[in-house]
Amino acid sequence: MADAVPTLVMGVVNVTPDSFSDGGRWFDADAAIAHGLELVADGADMLDVGGESTRPGAARVEPDEELRRVVPVVRELAGRGIRVSVDTMRSATALAAVEAGAEIINDVSAGLADAAMAPIVAGTGVHYVAMHWRGHSDRMDSLAEYADVAAEVRDELAVRVDALVAAGVARERLILDPGLGFAKRGAQNWELLGRLDVLADLGLPILVGASRKRFLGALLPDDAAMEERDLPTAVVSALSAQAGVWGVRVHDVRGTRRALDVLGAWQSGRRA
Ligand code: PMM
What we know:
Number of helices: 10
Mean pLDDT: 95
Bound molecules: pterin-6-yl-methyl-monophosphate
Helix content: 40-55%
Shape: globular
Order of helices and strands: EHEHEHEHEHEHHEHHEH
Distance between the termini: 10 Å
């Protein structure tokens, strides 16, 4: 009997008209909720609800509009007993989502986009995903200069961890994310994945968000549909799980779940 792999699967619920990977498909609340329930049926351990696209070049959404998109979806999904994370850089959205039942704040800016985020995280006591980030999506592609990408991502995240802890956030509530595709060029993403142990130096759980990103699309024919990135995503999920990550954030939960089942069987074979 194969052992279950402990890595958690976070299913993406984008309530946006313009996300790069699934923009517009789940844009009204009912469609987003139905999609979230499908992802749970497919084996998601938790859902990440976001109302602002962070695709390269994206403009910001108005704060009220982000709230309007996110809060009803979080409330309904959390009300059904599902573990919900809110994908936001804004403290006001984070707070409203936590009040609606979110248990995790997923901030792609690790607190850099909104100085009020750290005190909100400290005050609510929820878990917090701090992702490596160097600037907003409209300019992040120009910020991908590194001498040693793995060490610099680790060191820049260490600075964020110190700032968050200084603001009163409990260290054991932090999860780190290398921020694949955010101010990272193709090969830099592979280097971060290949050297996850460098990020693990900080002794905190790691979340990997590779799902459907450009660096996976680059492995496929030019005319490949977005969904064709799901197979490479599932393989990255299994390899990340083998590297010991806490979680993977994916659009296609079913494929990642199957890939993790294969890894579990593989690992049980090694132990036999
Ligand atoms: N990527 C996107 C959005 N949010 N959050 C975390 N923690 N890590 C990521 O890599 C990440 C994220 C990119 O956009 P998508 O919602 O279309 O996947």
